[in-house]
Specification:
This protein is α+β, with helices and mostly antiparallel strands and 108 residues long. It has one domain. Helices cover 38% and strands 25% of the residues. The protein has three helices and six strands, in the order E-E-H-E-H-E-E-H-E. The chain is elongated, with a radius of gyration of 15 Å.
């Protein structure tokens, strides 16, 4: 499962972000703008305000490996800083463009 963030449901490669559920939850917990909901809308200025003071290090998750009986069973790839910074760049561009267009930022 995943969550896609766009401008007013418009699919544009450089202005949309598709996140795995775990990455969305981590970003949501760090940014606090998605109201812990799996879908919704927000004014672009709300997103831009949150991003302006956001520290990407808050959303980093370290890789974890779980072993059972000495064998690797589960790998959680984590969320590295470079990936969080890429999310922030895309979300900032999306917020700026949505503000220019006078449209909402939508996720779901």
């Amino acid at each position: 499962m995943s969550v896609t963030i766009t401008i007013n449901h418009q699919r544009e490669n450089d202005l949309e972000l598709n996140l795995a559920n775990g990455n969305f939850r981590t970003l949501d917990a760090a940014l606090g703008v998605f109201d812990e909901e799996w879908c919704g809308t927000m004014r672009p200025q709300c997103l831009l305000d949150a991003l302006a003071s956001f520290d990407p290090r808050l959303a980093v998750r370290v890789e974890q490996r779980t072993y059972y009986n000495g064998r690797l069973a589960v790998v959680n790839c984590g969320l590295p800083l470079e990936q969080v910074e890429r999310y922030v760049r895309i979300l900032t561009a999306m917020g700026e463009e949505a503000l220019r267009r006078k449209e909402l930022v939508v996720w779901g």
